[in-house]
């Protein structure tokens, strides 16, 4: 009779372990989805600011058409992107195009003094900070999830119940290049 209770206890422990592991993995997966959603919200906010910024700069720098076209194409690519990889690539493309747009603005002192432009630049800077924070949070949640599914004995169970490692949000080759500062 004691052997039956021991077996019953072991089976109950195994069931509780599987149940808690599954629930923990589901919770972490939902956290990853929420973290990606936060990145998406900030990317949308940035994309919404861009037409106003472009129009403000256009008024001062009418001959810089190629940069405006580049920014518009990059924004469209971001708005049309569906997957994490395509959104990340489009976001990086947009960041590069915005850098060129801001560089153009530097050549026009009256534009730099324009209240609308200054406000848009502040909002864009704030949004870039939020995008960076959202990416960090996403990577933190992905780290927790990936660790949970790779440690023993979870690694033997997680793959069998449909959980696989998630990709981190990484820097592009362009972002990894060292910045050269020249004051001449």
Automatic annotation (TrEMBL):
Record keywords: Membrane, Transmembrane, Transmembrane helix
Keyword Membrane listed: yes
Family annotation (InterPro entries): LemA-like_dom_sf (IPR023353), MamQ_LemA (IPR007156)
Membrane topology according to the record: Single-pass membrane protein
Chief location bin: membrane
GO cellular component, one term: membrane
Residues that span the membrane, as ranges: 6-25
Localization, UniProt: Membrane
Similarity remark: Belongs to the LemA family.
PANTHER family named in the record: MEMBRANE PROTEIN, PROTEIN LEMA
Protein name: LemA family protein
Organism: Candidatus Gottesmanbacteria bacterium RIFCSPLOWO2_01_FULL_49_10
